[in-house]
Structures are given as C-alpha cells and as structure tokens.
Amino acid sequence: MSEMSPKEFKHILVGVDDSEDAQLAFRYAINRAKTDGAKLTIVSILEQDNMNVYEAMSKDFVHGQRADLEQHVQQYAKLAKQFGITDVATVVDEGDPGETIVKDIIPAIKPDLLVIGSISKHGVRRYFGSQAAYMAKHAPISVLVIR
User: Which run of H or of E encompasses 86?
Assistant: First the structure.
C-alpha cells in the first residue's frame, strides 16, 4: 500500500491580531508555506464593535486604527519575506472577523487553507464563543486552528 502524502497547499491565508495564538498561527503558516512553496496571504480585521460610538463615528479615529493595523500586518509580511517566502500578500478589512474572512476574503482571494489562532483576546466577542469556531464551521476550505 502506497504511503499517503500529506496535501500540499498552494495558497495559505493566515489571520493575525495581537494575541499570542495569532503569533503561533503565523509561525505555523510561514513554516507550512515554506515547506509547500505556497503563496501566503496575511489578513487582519478591524473590529468595529470594539470601538465606542464616538470612536466609530470619527473618520480620523477609524482611519488611524486602520493605519495602525495595516502597519502591523506589514510587519508580519516583512517577517515572512525574511523567512524566505517569496509570494506574500496582505489584506486589511473592517467588520466582524469571522464573517468577513469567510464571506468576503476567502471567495475573493481563493486560498486553500486558513490558519487561525483559537482565541482573539480582545473585544466582547470572546464571551460569545470564538471566531475560530465560526470560521471552522463555515469556511469552504480547510481550516487549521492553532492552540
């Protein structure tokens, strides 16, 4: 009987925020992308419901938050390139992280693996169950949840 070789992924999407789990997910994703010779897309979502009403109404605040997030994601991209991944892209979007990734980003960029940390440490959302569970259930591709 021939040995089953593990699936090779061509395009890996990794979700990052400022949690430790996200850093573990990122570390896994860059190793996997390097092994498979895969494209790596790094995504982060600006969660609107973490803002109070005044912040959410202020274009400057949202713009500032988004700029910070984009800079943060660029740092991850730089690390991935230093690690030896040649094809690296970044996506920053706004909204509910799970839904935005599943409904907007995956259909748009068509990765074949999503790598995420198990918990997002910030926001009220952690009390309502994890984004990871939503993505694992609803994503049309393989999802790897890193703990």
Answer: none
